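Reviewers of the previous submission asked for a worked example of the structure-prediction workflow described in the proposal, so we include one complete record here. The input consisted solely of the amino acid sequence. No template or homolog information was supplied to the procedure at any stage.
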Amino acid sequence: MRLLHTSDWHLGRALHRVSMLDAQAAFIGHLVATVRERGVDAVVVSGDVYDRAVPPLAAVELFDDALHRLAELGVPTVMISGNHDSARRLGVGAGLIDRAGIHLRTDPAGCGEPVVLTDAHGDVAFYGLPYLEPALVKDEFGVERAGHEAVLGAAMDRVRADLAARPGGTRSVVLAHAFVTGGEISDSERDITVGGVASVPSAVFAGVDYVALGHLHGSQTLTERVRYSGSPLAYSFSEADHRKSMWLVELGAAGELTAAERVDCPVPRPLARVRGELEDLLADPGLARHEDAWIEATLTDPVRPDDPMARLCERFPHTLSLVFDPARAPEEPGVSYARRLKDRTDQQIAEDFVTHVRGAGPDEKERAVLRDAFDAVRADDMLREVAG
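From that input alone, the workflow returned the following structure tokens.
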């Protein structure tokens, strides 16, 4: 059986206020084309279909279009909710949609009830484990202490129990949305830490043939049978070096992986991080390859330059993020804040603050403004003392 594994669509999400809706629509088109052209037998979507619990209308319309196009192909799709989704909203109409071959699994109580598909070698049981928020599902799974490993382990116990009751030779696929130990994170994933522990060991999935993971945005192979597809698009500059793809996996007659291929996703525009002083970034010929990319620029000028964003955009018109990290001499170690202020006037302290923030001290006009401000405060204090 040939499976196409994807996750973390985050429909409705923007990149630094730039709408990604067109790029997301292009990905859906690419997904449908891949299913049709590569002879896919089933599509698995491992959560975070939307970017937030109440998605914008345009994102809902795109999801609706995706469901119709997948249903028209006649290729079954199994989909779970992630931590960004509202499980209740995503699961509305699941029973009816099920008849069209789109199997939404958003209810934790249904973890042990698979979607069973059949090929020439027999049955394949697909178990959908939606994102399990420990505090909300601990009672459902009868665990005493809320934790990711405990609730996911209890859900997998249900999976293994159901699988053991099925005819011998039944192959198995688990969809899960979780942070599994060994996975590499980015800046894009929402923190799911509970009690300081968010990750679960990959051994919790023992006993199944393939685990299609969602949540982390980089495509990763934790073990031969446990994989993250990653997100189809980059949603932060920490993903600038990611190769965005889906997994095309083949399960053999005995549940062995006979093939695992990464299918690249369309890139709307590359991402790049550049760092240095402004004039160097504007002049460096080696950066010409990034002139059409979405840019995060980190300026290391010791003094903040004038109008840096406008000047950067003259060369890099798609600059989205500007960060200042001035290269300055380190402050004297071991010197307390009180000692630094000792014997310094209010005026000197204020001027030091300007220097610290901007990288250069105030000019004469700015010093005069500071003096006038302090004089006004002192005069006001004196008036209050007289009135009192």
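The domain at 269-328 is CATH 3.30.160 (Double Stranded RNA Binding Domain). We consider this example representative of the routine output the project will generate in years two and three.
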